[in-house]
Write a structure and sequence with these properties.
Elements (H helix, E strand, L loop, with lengths): L8 E5 L3 H10 L3 E5 L14 H13 L3 E6 L8 H11 L6 E4 L2 H10 L5 E3 L8 H9 L4 E3 L6 H10 L3 E8 L11 H6 L15 E2 L6 E2 L5 E3 L4 H7 L3 E4 L6 H16 L4 H7 L8 E2 L19 E9 L3 E4 L10 E5 L5 E6 L2 E4 L5 E4 L10 E4 L24 H9 L11 E6 L15 E4 L3 H6 L5 H5 L4 E4 L9 H13 L4 E4 L13 E4 L8 H9 L4 E2 L7 H6 L6 E6 L4 E3 L11 E3 L5 E7 L2 E6 L3 E2 L4 H6 L4 E5 L7 H13 L17
Parallel strand pairs: 1-2, 1-11, 2-3, 3-4, 4-5, 5-6, 6-7, 7-11, 10-12, 20-21, 20-32, 21-22, 22-23, 23-24, 24-25, 26-32
Antiparallel strand pairs: 7-10, 8-9, 13-14, 13-19, 14-18, 15-16, 15-19, 17-18, 26-31, 27-30, 28-29, 29-30
Helix pairs in contact: 1-9, 4-15, 9-10
Length: about 675
Amino acid sequence: MKNKPTKPELLLPAGNPETFHAAIEGGADAVYLGLKQFNARERADNFTYQQLLALLDEAENHQLKVYLTLNTVIKNKELSTLIDTLYTLSQTKISAIIIQDWGVYFLIKKFFPNLKIHGSTQMGNHNSPGAIFSEELGFERVIFAREMMEQEIQTITKKSNIDIEMFIHGALCYSFSGMCLFSSYLGGKGANRGMCMQPCRRMYNDKGPKRYIFSLKDNQLINFIPKIKEMGIASLKVEGRLKPAEYVYQVAKAYRLAIDHPDRVDEAKKMLNDDLGRAKTAYFFGKDVKNAITENPTTGKYVGNVISVDERCFSIHTNEKLQQGNRLWIRSPKGINRSAIKIKSIKETEDNQLEIHGNVEGIQKGDQVYLANFRQQKFTDTLQLTNKEIETQLPKVEKDKILQSLGKNKDLNKNQIFLRIDSIKWLKKVPLQEIDNLILNLPEKEWKELDVNTYLLKKNAHKIIFELPKFIPEEKIDFYKNLFRRFKETGYKSFMISHLSQKKIIPEDSIIAANENVYAFNDAAIHLLNSQNIKLFCYPQENDMDNFFSVKNKKGIVPVYFYPELFYSRMPVKIENEFQQFTDDKNYVFQKIVKNGITIVIPKNPVSLTQYKSKIEAKGFGRYLIDVSYEKPSDKRLNTIIGRLKDSKQIQPSTTFNFKKGLT
């Protein structure tokens, strides 16, 4: 049994050199940061290789650990660059690499084993099977979902030996990290690619005026630090690689005080009043879910409203001491973020107003003004670059050898139809003679009602695949273990997992398939799944045509009809109409559904790629997934979809998601 740490590591974000130095001054034990690519905060400044080398030297002088984020899913064409990146990092003293993609895991373990690996929160770990499985695969640490409850984390720390990292402060995504497709769906800017456009921070219309339905307050667990220390958590993480240095410094100081002196938590909490974030919530850990939604998603400290505007400046009345160099957020009372400005000069007028000079384009009378930073250049914003040389490209012969080892081209040379249903009401509607496999993904209540001994199911047992949900709370693990064990004992052999660690829930000697949530985005990830004895796998729903056609292994299952789960969240929200529908600013319609206590948002219209069937088949693929989850059971509808697939015709109304327009 591994000894649990007596004092957790304090881990701060470093989006640029200035925030790195702010973290050091604030008392951080470690920082996490990204390179110019392959990280989940592409909008941060991030670091070059030469900056990283200089930063690592300085970090070593301060006994500071440095973790590098490579936590996005990787396109096939990017594998060559990724290999060079891993080769370069393997020559450094980086403390660990934070990853999401199973392909990145495979390449590190196989070819760059000196690199330590942390499982990003985007890997979706949320229970003890996730922790134990990660430990077995050689991960040094897992970063758990923000939606975890105190008791769940306590149980997991007792059942597993792996280091656990948890978020204690900063912004919250509405959806589980790694399971959000909303940004990707709206404009091809994938959250899993580090390009999230923050759809949960937008206003929507469900009945009457537009409002913020999904925008969460910021996480703050300062009150729970004494309790968290007792739980043996290895690392306490602060979110914020897009935040200014003042934020990093102030938050680091507060949590440093709380960790070192638990009796001074109240004092530390007061220091967080000026973190310039949103209103705060203790979220699921602190049982503070009811009031976790905010009507004001703007970060910063509110300082007043615009009184007047001219072509050079605007005026406000405020008690806040603003100064030249401060950055301000300007926000419309209607919820539209107009602009961010930097104060060029400031002047106090005779009537106690402040006249602020800067870029006033788009600013209107009545707009709300928020202070985004306190002062300019308080921390060193440069790094002392060294003359160290580092090889940034693996020799071509060696790299080609790695790429070739990821498998040979494998065409399927046959057609198979997989059908997913989400209700036992579909069973009498399914033309089993027309499909090759039937995937059952039922809510918990219907699992309890399902009779697997009926003649219909027993006769077609070889076609039946039972599927696990994406989120299984700790208290439900035994339910699914016992359920699927009973199915296996009854004669069923095939099961589908939504997370690779769910192999620990499936009965031994089963046929295991992996669904779209186990990202098979590139040849390396697919190779890893094969090595894990995954007999069938699905290509991701948010895939685009170029990346999809580039994979060597064509034996996966292609989603050709489905309603993508844009938000998948433990956080309940209220929609103010009987149809549970809402619209965005482009009048696209979405619907909220609750399944197993999880809030799911889907678009009104499905995604249909059935019209590409001939083209897909010509490229060597042949397994097709029709997913009628979220549709009313109808044999007529099902026959129409199957017919359109066979004829390579589109189903209308529908969209093509990223398949045609591309994924950034």
